[in-house]
Amino acid sequence: MKKEFEVLDMVCNHCVESVTKACKSVDGVTDVNVSLEDKKAVVEGDFNEADIIKAIDEIGFEATLK
């Protein structure tokens, strides 16, 4: 499954790296593509959407399912 999350608070490449790492830490995630320009994270795999939102929230960003 592929899901897209809006992450509006990202302002730099370090933010992108942090969000990518947080998403990859969630069980079942197979691929992550984070775009600073589009303010979104596209996550692939077999995971719970709430776990992605929580992982991103825990590093200080707010994510919503698009």
Number of strands: 4
Beta-strand residue fraction: 25-35%
Q: How many individual domains?
A: 1
Q: Tell me what the CATH architecture is.
A: 2-Layer Sandwich
Rg computed from alpha carbons, rounded to a whole number of angstroms: 10 Å
Query: In which order are the strands of the major sheet placed?
Result: 2-3-1-4
Number of helices: 2
Rough outline: globular
Quickly name the level 1 CATH class: Alpha Beta
Which topology does CATH recognise? Answer: Alpha-Beta Plaits
Element order, helices and strands?
EHEEHE
Structural class of the helix and strand makeup? alpha+beta
Provide mean pLDDT, rounded: 98
How far apart, in Å, are the first and last alpha carbons? 14 Å
Poorly predicted sequence stretches spanning 5 or more consecutive residues = none
Helix percentage range? 25-40%
Largest sheet: 4 strands, antiparallel
